[in-house]
């Protein structure tokens, strides 16, 4: 199991860059940008909240691309790519949900409320958890890859739902930062000046972090499969 | 090998053992393929025919529906007003769980008997098989939904047989059975397949379910158009997405 | 350009399930009108080969041509020329024989005005005309297998694929099936049959091939093979391969 040196160097560089970006992003969010007028310090968590959502969105989008590419080429590498993206996307979405809850406690005075935006993100999370369940339930590897590709495409409907739902239900209490809304959400604020700069920096940071994590996850999966193959070889030689 | 097939069509002849078939034709003989919608109709018709004879699915689905409604009425012990607001939820939860029974059986039966292979061997576009199965599943679930509408009207004393509500029921069941037919064709290959279908189907159809419940509630409460129309739009969008997904992806699910 | 008399042409066919190669570079030619018996132990790839020929499974690599049409790209045209009998009857229990056949006649695009005639003809051929209106669930295993053959020849296919058609049949039913297979095989039809019954496979076929570890390990016309020597030959061919 060897990779070319140049690729390993790029990955190492990216990993360090992601770590540095993350620290800078946190510094910007926690110290550089001033406290928001009404929400005070609680608003600072928003940069991680939206950043991780962007990360999950990128990862789940890449899963769709991986699914289509797998069905066309039947190349197992696309399956590995899809799996890595789902797992990282699930992690990112979990961060979104947890940070959201931490924010909602002081602002909405509750950890969780059954409100369209929250419900739809929870559904999205379940859909990709089901992706992993489906994988573990299919024994034949070729069929597992094929079904995972198909399900990875269909599950994206739940991502679309999180975006469409606030257009259908403008009475959400969840703040809508991007795009116009007629709603009167609780905990909204203006994205201008330093807030905007901090936001964009953190969005970029989380995009890079997602790519780096997916890359590492792919290498891990390749290693797992390599070990499994070696095991089979050794066993068949006995 | 030329890219263009020989134009000679060779209709299925009753003449057994056409030994005089010219060699050139054997090399690349074209038989007219079965038209898409004829295959769809044939598959759906076959399922209906079998179901009318055995009544296996419908019976268990109807019985399940009765029991679920019974449990709901006992568990919720609702007054008149509460019934008005919860009846849509009861309606859709029952449709979904009764539907799950039908969906998991319909393809499992084909697979276990090997008749799924027989379908796949036919010279038809595989998505025609998908739409055929989906159509028969849709009919079964719609029958259940109708029974349920009548049942809830009587037991909950809420008038459910409204044209608008029926539109919502049809749109919701289309989305549910389309996604269900596609995903049950995958879950039949899984270990513990009865548990697998709800796990992979529910998150995908929850948006449909939520939209359908919200639209139904708004219609039953007599709210203005703005309160239910967006949900119906969302239902239509979901139906179109699932139909397209089934059309495009079923082939990949069934081919090894 | 393939020679026109080769109905089935398989080149360097491989099929891998996960890490497990089932077919490893298989070549096979079957001329038009030939009856080929395919022997081989369980797991040698017989069923996989037939599933690929029937366009139910996709080859990992290699080319397959049937009647000039290529797999998997032109699968629908290939399927239109195939009749398949498997060890499962591939029928619907709750429908009658007639309903089953009418359904498959529609699926195989038999023109509407010919469907009933055609169904009657094949039912008579397999000797089930009198039971046509009975539900398939009431049929014996042998009758179901005869009906499966009726289903397979319904659209007058140029190629028949028979995957262990004798599974689960008693002596009488097997003898009936012998007769029926001999009958449907004549008239220019190309047949590939897999079986574990060496003697029966030899008696029916024009040519015998033995599949072992995903390759054709033996291939000869039946008249060159002494049926009494076949079991020893079979053990040699397959046994030699398993011990490497």
Describe the structure.
By secondary structure, chain A is mainly α. Chain A has one domain. The mean pLDDT of chain A is 87. In chain A, 76% of the residues lie in helices and 0% in strands. In chain B, helix 7 runs parallel beside helix 9. By secondary structure, chain B is mainly alpha-helical. The N terminus of chain B is likely disordered. Chain C has 244 residues and is α/β, with parallel strands linked by helices. Chain C has a six-stranded mixed β-sheet with strand order 6-7-8-3-9-10, sandwiched between helices. The interface between A and C is small, with 7 and 5 residues.
Give a concise summary.
With 238 residues, chain A is mostly helical. Chain A has helices spanning 5-32, 46-73, 76-107, 116-137, 141-154, 156-168, 193-237.
How does the SSE layout of this entry go?
The complex is a heterotrimer of chains A (238), B (256) and C (244).
Chain A: H1 5-32, H2 46-73, H3 76-107, H4 116-137, H5 141-154, H6 156-168, H7 193-237
Helix pairs in contact in A: 1-7, 2-3, 2-5, 2-7, 3-4, 3-5, 3-7, 4-5, 4-6
Chain B: H1 23-27, H2 36-54, H3 56-76, H4 80-113, H5 115-121, H6 126-156, H7 163-187, H8 193-220, H9 225-254
Helix pairs in contact in B: 2-6, 3-4, 3-6, 4-6, 4-7, 4-8, 6-7, 6-9, 7-8, 7-9, 8-9
Chain C: E1 6-17, E2 20-31, E3 35-39, H1 46-53, E4 61-66, E5 69-71, H2 75-80, E6 82-85, H3 97-107, H4 112-125, H5 141-153, E7 159-163, H6 171-185, E8 190-194, H7 198-204, E9 207-212, E10 215-221, H8 230-242
Parallel strand pairs in C: 3-8, 3-9, 6-7, 7-8
Antiparallel strand pairs in C: 1-2, 1-4, 4-5, 9-10
User: What is the helix content of chain B?
Assistant: over 70%
Label the structural class of chain C. alpha/beta
| Cα separation of the termini of chain C | 37 Å
Q: What is the CA-based Rg of chain B, rounded?
A: 22 Å
Shape of chain C: globular
How many strand elements of chain C?
Answer: 10
Runs of chain B with pLDDT <50, length 5+? 1-27
Query: Which pair of chains has the greatest number of interface residues, and how are they split between the two chains?
Result: B-C, 49 and 55 residues
Identify the quaternary structure here: heterotrimer
Average pLDDT rating of chain B = 84
Mean pLDDT of chain C: 86
Structural Rg of chain C? 18 Å
> What name does CATH use for the topology of the largest domain in chain C?
Rossmann fold
Total domain modules of chain C: 2
How many domains in all of chain B?
Answer: 1
